[in-house]
Specification:
Elements (H helix, E strand, L loop, with lengths): L1 H30 L6 H4 L18 H55 L6
Length: 120
């Protein structure tokens, strides 16, 4: 009996979604624009005329900085719970976090020395 209620609910959800999709298609067909102009088909870039090709390549340096940002952002995910529980973890937790921060610090020093953080 309980699965019948779940099936009825799922059927209602699918029905509402299908009805909304069908209505939006009908309304767009009836009220939507029928003329395709050149201005409408061009990509929109904040109201400014396009100044460069849309398929422009980015430097590898951009992706490297993005990956480093994510790496150090994830480091914060590990630091916050440790900061909340550092008294319960005791000296062992302090040593482990020190090792973790040491590895992260070594990685930052390595990347910095290699010049990955210099923006040109």
């Amino acid at each position: 009996m309980e699965w019948g209620k779940v099936a009825l609910y799922a059927l209602c959800v699918v029905g509402v979604a299908a009805t909304m999709l069908a209505l939006s298609a009908l309304v767009t067909r009836w009220l939507g624009p029928r003329q395709k102009r050149r201005e409408k088909l061009e990509p929109y870039e904040c109201g400014v005329p396009i100044q460069s090709p849309t398929r422009q390549r980015f430097s590898v340096h951009f992706y490297l900085v993005a990956i480093l940002f994510i790496l150090f952002d994830i480091e914060m995910v590990f630091l916050v719970p440790w900061a909340v529980l550092f008294r319960k973890l005791g000296v062992a937790g302090l040593i482990e976090m020190g090792l973790f921060l040491g590895v992260i610090g070594f990685g930052l020093a390595y990347v910095w020395r290699r010049g990955a953080l210099n923006w040109e």
